[in-house]
Amino acid sequence: MNTAFGAQRLPVPVPNVGQLDVPLGLFSPLILSCLLTLQLRPPTRLWETAPRPQGAVRLGLLIAAVIPAALACLPLWTHSFELALSGLRNLAGLTGMTLATATVAGSSRGWMTAFPYVLLTLLLGTHGSSASGGRPDHPWWAFVLEQPAETTAATLSALLALAGSTGYTVFGTRTEQ
Q: From CA 120, how far away is CA 14, in angstroms rounded?
């Protein structure tokens, strides 16, 4: 999907800016992070009571799930190096967001923060700036739309990934009924 459609542009109307063209490749990390979180729930209730170090097992599962998701973002390099870096940054941040939600609310509800966040970022995270001559400007919290070299977006994404993976490794996902 990233190879064929990664560079295709999705027109998003933005007030005071006009139309913002967002590459479809920036949306694939959202799908990947939501699917990744669904796969990290315990297979049975006995999983949590088995006599083994749960943190090490969860960390191994997380690494085994994140590697294929990161590899799925690599075909974006066929379009541009910047698009691939943005895709990996967004995968890290959105996965951290979904893991934190799965730790608190359960793995089937992990998408409930990342999906609305991306929609709100598209609707509210872009505005025209008089300092930039009316070009799109993004607030610090809208990391999914930022340029790959933006250090604030990379830092926020890394902090989200660290917080989500630490919470998942230590506590696991909430047991669902």
A: 12
Cβ distance 157 to 118 under 8 Å? no
From CA 138, how far away is CA 127, in angstroms rounded?
7
Query: Which tens digits make up the pLDDT trace of 61-116?
Result: 899 989 988 888 877 777 778 878 888 999 999 999 999 999 999 888 888 999 88
CB 160 within 8 A of CB 93: yes
pLDDT category of residue 158 using cuts at 50, 70 and 90: very high
Assigned token pair, 52: 């083994």
Q: Between the CA of residue 144 and those of 16, 157, 166, 177, what are the distances in Å? A: 20, 9, 22, 33
Of 129, 131, 160, 163, give the one whose Cα is nearest residue 143. 160
